[in-house]
Amino acid sequence: xxxxSSIDITKILVAGEWxxxxxxxxxxxxxxxxxxxxxxxxxxxxxxxxxNAAEVAFGxxxxxxxxxxxxxxxxxxxxxxxxxxxxxxxxxGEAGKPIKEARGEVTRAENTFRIAAExxxxxxxxxxxxxxxxxxxxxxxxxxxxxxxxxxxxxxxNFPLNLVAHKIAPALAVGCPILLKPASATPLSALxxxxxxxxxxxxxxxxxxxxSVIPADGPxxxxxxxxxxxxxxxFTGSPEIGWMLKARAGTRKVTLELGGNAGVIVMDDAxxxxxxxxxxxxxxxxxxxxxxxxxRIYVHSSVFDKFKDSFIAKAQSLxxxxxxxxxxxxxxxxxxxAIEKTIGWIDTAVKDGATLLTGGTREGNILAPTVLTRTxxxxxxxxxxxxxxxxxxxxxxxxxxxxxxxxxxxxGLQAGLFTTNMNSILKAYETLEVGGVIAGDIxxxxxxxxxxxxxxxxxxGREGVKYAxxxxxxxxxxxxxxx
Length: 483
Known about the structure:
- By secondary structure, the protein is α/β, with parallel strands linked by helices.
- The chain contains 15 helices and 24 strands.
- The protein has 2 domains: 266 residues, 3-Layer(aba) Sandwich (Aldehyde Dehydrogenase, Chain A, domain 1), CATH 3.40.605; 186 residues, 3-Layer(aba) Sandwich (Aldehyde Dehydrogenase, Chain A, domain 2).
- The strands form 7 sheets. A 7-stranded mixed β-sheet has the order 14-17-18-13-12-20-21, sandwiched between helices. A 6-stranded mixed β-sheet has the order 9-8-7-10-11-23, sandwiched between helices. Strands 5-6-24 form a 3-stranded antiparallel β-sheet.
């Protein structure tokens, strides 16, 4: 691929070495298609070398004491803080994320490493009484967690820094080397984080090969699952690819975060204005390209019109434009193909009887905030993951029926419920088939320490620093007997 001579090539990190390869990759802004950077694609040989180096590094890294791992992670967090504006500009440039949101992502990534530093110091085990049956008198057990070994992390485009942090930070916290394959559309943020880790790691004596950051074609990266050095896969991306990789992973430990089509319920006792404002944030942040983006809103019929009018007015007032501008609230989607697919789903829904309340138009790669009503559950806008600034808004009267509506479809990541009725909250918690129920807020709410993941087609296992760390470990029992 021909590159612009004025742009330096960002090298990739392979087995502790920054290298260039024969295959270059231009990274373009989704907003105006300008080239924001050039990097390289790794080959099967590069990936194999990284895996072998990680296996060697593991022998040393797994013996690091907790305080040393915690200090490393804290220093990485400090490094992120020191380069926060550079990181935010990189995220905004390659992902098209509004700069305000990009700065928020950098803050979260820093916090993810700080949380990991704390969790590294308190990852414990259990002491088990084993004398619960005759013949086991005087016996007790010690249960500890041990790192599994080299990890393969595959991250998506929509949070090109913090979702990378959610792979790297837990791995370093438990003592696992990691090979990170970032999304080909947004590799620059991950490579910049790699620079920070290498700089900090050299000062701390981090084993060479602990981290590799290698952009690569999907099939090339998949060859790592044929390499016995890789002991764990953590993947965030599409269901089709995720389940395929899980099947290929064999006996390895696997974590999958595969997205959803999150539902929100607004009850008649809710603060309608507050709920509408929060749903605007949940539906249109990052142009709806969030796994827990608000996609379906069910509003009690007694307050439906009030909510609808407020929500549409707020959606229409969002400032669209250049993500580099601090006033921009809605930027571009990642590529034209994604917009074309989404508009096709909108047009099909309208053709099949849905009503378009606002939006449905595009300016370049920016899709206007779009709201549909009078949809049916079988429409793609309801049953599939849109990953776009599109929302379905429907009235309801029966709480049991609306819980069933939220449960319909193949996904189950998170759901939101606006109400002050604790009985309704508890019933939703017990009924909804999701990984998390967010009471009093949108399903888009997430902090980086909470367990995060879904059921059904939404995934397998949990992220969130502590929980990701546990899934990068094996528990091992030691049985002891009193003398």
